[in-house]
Amino acid sequence: MSTVSLLTSIVARSRLPALLKIYKEQNLEINLIALGHGTATHAVLNVLGLDSTEKAVCFSFVTDLKWPSVKRDLQNKLRIDVPGTGIAFTVPLSSIGGKRELAFITQNQDFVRKEESTMRDTKRELIMIICNQGYNEQVMDAARTAGAAGGTVIHARGTGMKSAEQFFGVSLASEKDVIYIVSNTSEKNRIMQAIMEKAGLATPAKAIAFSLPVTDTAGLRLLEEEENVPADSAPESPE
Question: Could you state, in order of their start, the residue ranges of all structural domains in the chain?
Fold first, then answer.
């Protein structure tokens, strides 16, 4: 059995080509790239030997069987362990919205499918949806029908999208919207199912959804209040 993780890499924008070269050599086909800005002070930048805080954030997918060799290349070729070079970390996915989507994000990586997993006592999940740019409202409309309260959208550029044709028989645009939705674990499957049905691969949105466990939260008062409402105080259905 093996697991799939979201691999997040943050490097100086000038080092992005080197990072993507490593990932291509490692057969990490699907990468989403967004631009960011570091918050280190000038004094810290001088100590680290950096000239700019302009960052590239790369989201990829990696199996636990592939990750050790990817990590070695990041250390040996990119020197990511050197202070100021960058950082990479993995977070295990708890579910993926569909078999074809799973095959797509794990292509050319050793993977043995296992049952969906959830971290013990996890009450929340982060649902991440990747869709063609301009269709985030269609995704959110679908999510709201299943009880989602709201989401956050960032824009990214995708690589490896040409290989999608062998899985889906469609061309996927390289410009992407990435939507973050935090939900109760009990509602996660319903929200993901609504998204895949109403904004999935059969629609122009071409959405792919997956989820990650959330260990703790702050600022989700509405979800917490809904959890604590006694059953006998719930509104009654009209006659």
Answer: 4-92, 95-215
